[in-house]
Amino acid sequence: MTGMGHSSRPLSRAFFGRPADRVARELLGCRLAVRAGDGRVSRHMVCETEAYLGAHDLACHGSRGMTARNAVMFGPAGVWYVYLCYGMHWMLNVVTGPVGVPAAVLIRGVGGHVGPGRLTRALSIDKRFDGRPTVRPTGLWFEPGRLVPPQFVAKTPRIGVGYAGAWAEKPLRFLVDPETLGFGERVGQRNRRPPRRTEA
């Protein structure tokens, strides 16, 4: 879906200033808006997310303390956290919760772009967005979309975080079931092998 304008206002910072699991679930059905160099804006329905809850979550980057790479996670909500995974894949995350709590939501799939590395490659998302707010002037933001009823949402353990002990089994991956959604968008197959260690 592409166009020059849109009536929806971006999701507010208050939307992101909540626990990561709530934000991850409620982002399903919202639209990720991306402004290209020519000014055109494409919008893509969010269909898969993962929540990373903070320093106590052993699958979260913040569990290892603040570093140059993850410092943005300790800042305000509603800011992009973008990092390079294995030198190949940019991972798009949005910071959630209060300042000082290193929590974030990884965006794993939007529209027909399934897999966190695939979606950033397809939409030309890279390090230039890291640390920037999720607002129109940044060129990358979220807009309200369709409400996804609970029966259309699957919850599973996160992918690629086997090192996190019991936290690896927490059902903190949220995805829209492509078999029953019926929103007119192909969102790919649920069982696939994404890049390893795609944690936030």
Structural features, described:
By secondary structure, the chain is mainly β. It has a single domain, classed as Methylpurine-DNA glycosylase (MPG) (3-methyladenine DNA Glycosylase, Chain A), CATH 3.10.300. The protein has 3 helices and 10 strands. Strands 1, 2, 3, 4, 5, 6, 7, 8, 9 and 10 form a 10-stranded antiparallel β-sheet that branches. A hairpin with an 8-residue loop joins strand 5 (89-95) and strand 6. It is globular. Residues 1-7 and 183-200 have low confidence and may be disordered.
CATH class: Alpha Beta
**Percent range of helical residues:** under 10%
Mean pLDDT: 87
CATH architecture: Roll
Superfamily (CATH H level) name = Methylpurine-DNA glycosylase (MPG)
How many strands in all?
A: 10
Q: Which consecutive residue ranges, at least 5 long each, have pLDDT under 50? A: 1-7, 183-200
How many helix segments?
A: 3
In terms of DSSP E residues, the strand content is 25-35%
Q: Outline, from the CA principal axes?
A: globular
Q: Class by helix and strand content?
A: mainly beta
Number of domains: 1
CATH topology: 3-methyladenine DNA Glycosylase, Chain A
* Secondary-structure element series: EHHEEEEEEHEEE
* End-to-end gap: 28 Å
Rg calculated over all Cα atoms:
15 Å
* Biggest sheet descriptor: 10 strands, antiparallel
Summarize this structure as a short list of keywords or feature phrases.
200 residues, mainly beta, 3-methyladenine DNA Glycosylase, Chain A, 10-stranded antiparallel beta sheet, 3 helices, disordered N terminus, disordered C terminus
